[in-house]
Amino acid sequence: MTGVTLCLAQDADADALLDRDPLALLIGMLLDQQFPMERAFAGPALLARRLGVERLDARELAGYDPDALVELFTGPPAVHRYPRSMAQRVQALAAAVVDRYDGDVTGIWSDVATGKELFTRLAGLPGFGTQKAQIFTALLGKQRGVTPDGWREAAGGYGQDGVHMSVADVVDADSLGRVREYKQAAKAARKAAATG
User: Fold this and answer.
1) What confidence tier does 196 reach under pLDDT thresholds 50, 70, 90?
2) How far is CA 42 from CA 79, 128, 154, in A?
3) Model-level pTM?
4) Is residue 57 within 8 Å of 63, Cβ to Cβ?
5) Burial label, 46 (beta-carbon count in 10 A; 0-12, 13-18, 19+)
6) What is the DSSP string of 4-41?
7) Based on CB atoms within 10 Å of each CB, which residue in 124, 140, 172, 188 is the most buried?
């Protein structure tokens, strides 16, 4: 994968894994819910260290003993604030990569003709809904050089240039701060709309 050097975990070792291992990046996106973004994207590195590997392997994760995987997620420190459910989701995601793409996560995007096809493939993965698929489509386009025709449109607002709406826009500590500000403002607006 080509693109900018990733800075999502805000930790050099964890980001280096995300840079060289597309499965780690996909798992980081899966973990990015109800948990601080940097910790979610640092999770794959923590998992790789506990497994004693340099890269995560979809076949290994899919076939791992489920209870043992939960233990790896539990830590301490925990890979996620919900270690049991996230271990199960990661295992389901890995199994889908094995079943649909012969264990090669890049098969999700390597042969897509359009952004819509890329979005559809991502949205069909376990643990990925519309928003997560849009954000990952934007992340692939903005930071990994995966730019099939119409990828920006398929990513929705997350595909726009010059915005700071999601992890797709995080390239350093400053941009992480801007994304946090955007999310806080959006949350406040939703809360005001619900009570107004």
Assistant:
1) confident
2) 8, 19, 27
3) 0.94
4) no
5) buried
6) SPP-SSSSHHHHHHHHH-HHHHHHHHHH-SSS-HHHHH
7) 140
